[in-house]
Amino acid sequence: DTLIKDSLYIQYFESSLIPKIKGYYKRGKKNGLWQEYFESSDSIPKIKSEQYYNNDTLHGIYETCTINGFK
Which contacts of 10-18 are long-range, i.e. CB under 8 A and separated by 24 or more positions? Predict the structure, then answer.
């Protein structure tokens, strides 16, 4: 049987416990806010990009940021 994702998804950088990607799956498809993070030595993750999905389709604004937090 194939497992259908229906929960929070977090992928971490191999070198740390800082998330690389975070988002939600609903019935196996991306839904809601997805965030990608910069790899850094800071203990607080810094957002690299934010995008919203609806039923696995990019929906709305796709925003990117610099390491300093400027959009």
Answer: 13/39, 15/39, 16/41, 18/45
